[in-house]
Amino acid sequence: MVRYSLKRLLSLILSLAIASVVIFCVIEVAPGDPASFMLGINAQPDTVAALRAELGLDVPKWLRYLHWVGGMLQGDFGTSYTYHTPVSGMIADRLWVSLPLALYALAFSTLIAFPAGIYAAARRGKAGDMAVMGATQLGVAIPNFWFAMVMVLIFAINLRWFSAGGFAGWDKGFFAAMKSLTLPAISLGLPQAAILARVMRSALLDILGEDFMRTARAKGLTRRQALWRHGLRNAMIPVLTIIGLQFAFLMAGAIIIENVFYLPGLGRMVFQAISSRDLIVVESVVMLLVFAVILVNFLVDLAYAAVDPRLRSRT
Amino acid sequence: MNRNLLIGAVLSSIVVLAALVSFVWTPFDYTAMNIPDKLQSPNAVHWFGTDHFGRDIFSMIMVGARTSIAVALVAVGIGMALGIPLGLAAAARKGSWVDEVIMRGNDLVFAFPSLVIAILITAVFGAGAVNAIIAIGIFNIPVFARITRGGALSLWEREFIMAARVAGKSASRISFEHILPNVMNLLIVQGTIQFSLGILAEAGLSYIGLGAQPPTPSWGRMLADAQTMVSLAPHLALVPGIAIVLTVLGLNLMGDGLRDHLDPRLRVART
């Protein structure tokens, strides 16, 4: 297990290094000079040169890359060209909205998907299974941002149970903050729940054909008892893998949902940065999202190998 | 023909037909503004109502179908054109450094969701439908590479491939002449799924302003425009949303139906 973990860790570091080079190179291709952009067209050349030096733009690109990566390793993402404040502070503030939103959506999607998937598997081929599968087929086809708009129309505009947008802030109390994240989390989580319910059902149905399930039935357990006592535990391996992978995509999906609900998260920040050409912010947020995806994949690989020893020997 | 395939094919055909007909006919000029008729609910003249500029929504939906289909289709094309040869090469040299480099490269691309690629591209080159195509297309490459490799690996152990090797055919000739036709079914099914995901991704990117730009109509853009008026005129948000849902649903059902139809094991299980 230690050898396997080290190998995966090496692969994680290599992936992060290559991803950082790709992101840096793409952003470097961007036309225009950030210092000239910040000072406007009437700026004097020596003022622009001074700002370039202040921002560290006057050194060779490879050295800038090393500064950027070295800084990130110490939690320093540089200084925003627009706000003149540390990017790490801006990201930390916004993460307090985006991260809880993604976690809330994940919790919601799991709470819906598990019972739905188990119910469908237990009633394979019957009306209940077909109803759940039909609903998931529809759930997969619904764009989350459109679902969010429909939720706003029903629960904010017509029923007035929730506000149509904005974030109350954690200083207003946990429940007020969570209330403002509820509609966004449902919108983000429901389409994911449809995918997860399908995975849960199919994993359980695969398990039902296994020898140990036949033995459990032969011992006298009913289909449902065998499913709960033996099937569910074994089906959790692929399901947990999908949950891990979904979390990374929920973080990315949160970018769109934040725009529907005007939430002050990473998504809003990155779009403001794109329009104001604050490329250091774009670069850092993209790197953070890619880091989240790679890290979650790494953790899922480790968790999977811990549960299933056969995987360790395969590598 | 199974039920999923039939329903999926009908839904998808309607959308494709609407897109094709829009090249020669739409009920109204989709760019023509008519302020006195603005925000009309669906009625006998404007079947899906009008928007805040008085433009006919039915005509915009027809033309928007063109954008969605074009973006998703080209993105699937990019994914297939690059992903399939990579998958074939990785399978032909299983376990070698070629396989390792291709598969690790795939893992790396997977770490960049299409939205993140779109953010990067837009930050550098600006927003537009072409950038959306590139972003979605890049994300499709590892998907097709993995599917092709997975399907091809088992085929390389089969007797008819051994016979081709004994006959002196090169790995690349075997890959394209014998392996590719045998993984085509898998690729067609995956192509349908990626096409539907492409429609969703295009709508999402256009919604946040990273996809098709005005005056090109796009379902995602229509939803973005509708957002501030959803309480005044709900049909502005409902119509494009339902169009996206029905299109994606149709393609997904078609993908499921095709998989059942093309996989002999599933056919035997059904009968």
General description of the model:
The complex is a heterodimer of chains A (315) and B (271). Chain A has 315 residues and is mainly α. Chain A starts with a helix and ends with a helix. Chain A is built from 13 helices and no strands. Chain A has helices spanning 2-29, 34-39, 45-55, 61-73, 87-122, 127-141, 144-158, 174-208, 211-218, 223-260, 266-275, 279-307, 310-314. The longest helix of chain A has 38 residues, at 223-260. Chain A has a domain at 91-265: MetI-like (MetI-like fold, Orthogonal Bundle). By secondary structure, chain B is an all-alpha fold. Chain B has a single domain (3-18, 49-270), classed as MetI-like (MetI-like fold), CATH 1.10.3720. Helix content of chain B is 72%, strand content 0%. Chain B has ten helices and no strands. Chain B has helices spanning 3-21, 57-92, 97-110, 114-125, 129-155, 159-166, 171-207, 219-226, 235-262, 264-270. In chain B, helix 7 runs parallel beside helix 8 (219-226) and helix 7 runs antiparallel to helix 9 (235-262). Chain B starts with a helix and ends with a helix. Chain A binds chain B through residues 11, 14-15, 18-19, 22-23, 26-27, 29-31, 137-138, 140-143, 145-146, 149-150, 152-153, 157, 248-249, 252-253, 255-256, 259-260, 270-271, 273-274, 277, 279, 282, 285-286, 289-290, 293-294, 297, and chain B through 104, 107-108, 110-113, 115-116, 119-124, 196, 200, 203-204, 207-209, 220, 223, 226-227, 230-231, 234, 237-238, 240-241, 244-246, 248-249, 252-253.
The rounded distance between the terminal residues' Cα atoms of chain A is 11 Å
Please bin the fraction of helical residues of chain B: over 70%
Helix residue percentage of chain A? over 70%
| CATH domain fold name of the domain at 91-265 in chain A | MetI-like fold
In one word, what is the shape of chain A? flat
Beta-strand segment tally of chain B: 0
Assembly classification: heterodimer
List segments of chain B where confidence is low: pLDDT < 50 over at least 5 consecutive residues: none
Overall domain count of chain B? 1
The top level CATH class name of chain B: Mainly Alpha
Output the CATH homologous superfamily of the domain at 91-265 in chain A: MetI-like
Principal-axis shape of chain B equals elongated
Classified by CATH, the class of the domain at 91-265 in chain A is Mainly Alpha
Q: What Rg of chain B is obtained from the alpha carbons, in whole angstroms?
A: 22 Å
Number of helices of chain B: 10
